[in-house]
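debug: dumping io for the single-chain case to check the tokenizer round-trip. Nothing else runs in this session.
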Amino acid sequence: MSHLRRPAVVLAAALAAAFLAAPGTATAERPGPARETVNGKHVIAISVDGLNPRALTKLGRTGTPNLHRLIKDEGAGTVNARTQLEMTVTLPNHTSMVTGRRIRAGKGGHGVTWNDDTVTTTVQQAAGHEVDSVFTQVHEAGGTTAVYATKSKFWLFENSWPKAVDKNVIEVEKNGAVVKALRTDLATDPASFSFVHLGKPDQVGHDAGWMSARYLRAVGQVDKLVGSIMTQVESTPSLRNNTVIVLTSDHGGIPGTKNHAIKTSREDYRVAFAFWGAGVPHTDLYALNPDRANPGRTRPSFGASPQPIRNGEVANVSLDILGVGPVPDSLWDLGQDLAWK
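debug: decoded output
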């Protein structure tokens, strides 16, 4: 089911880790019957890696018409959501998106603190115990799942939940190819839950700097790809009335630098979060969710009440859209009270 040819050494190491890991800690799925049955809707969760919301202001509606449609003009969105508190880097934040957990293992988090594809540890091994995900919940409820990603490190998801990730398409640094694969599947056999990672802004940010001319062009290119997904949904009768797109990001990036790892910088911890599609109203996402607090320029801690909207809410709100209960032992949106309609 996977489309990436991984380097032999990495593949061999991953297989060795799976065979040598202690039973029940590495790749096992939590047994048991489905708690619900998926309701027939489809969720497409899109993460635009390294999207600093400043780029949307800089490029405006002319340069990013589709992201503006999704976040500001048609959907329910905000450009002032928050990343994970512990780290503002890619793999830890994306693992929070699909598990609903914080990062720090000792505090109930998923334990994924690395950010490359050389580590063969699974999420379960990192946490030291079983960890469920949006993939396991959808699968147990009779639905299907798919991952479409542009970085090889996202093999982590299939390695950690091999029975629950039904399709895994990884095309390294090929954003167009990933979206083409998604659109082909949307036209023929769409998954109940599709997770899409678009890494072009992050790739260019590390190479040329955040908010550079090349970075802004990359954001514009991703905008067109997001638009093509929206068009696919609108033009497909079987999707038009039952599909919701959830869009967010893992981190921003500091303008004029190639850095996004300073977790206390607003340029890094401020991200967009939005819903678009069937049943979604056109409104500000904080207005739709008065039990979440717009944090302004601040970085609220775990103890803040109310909390801001966080990228880690992707898992449980996606399950809510699909009519499935939350990820067991998760933190973000455990009550599935993040309103999307």
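debug: round-trip ok. The mean pLDDT is 92.
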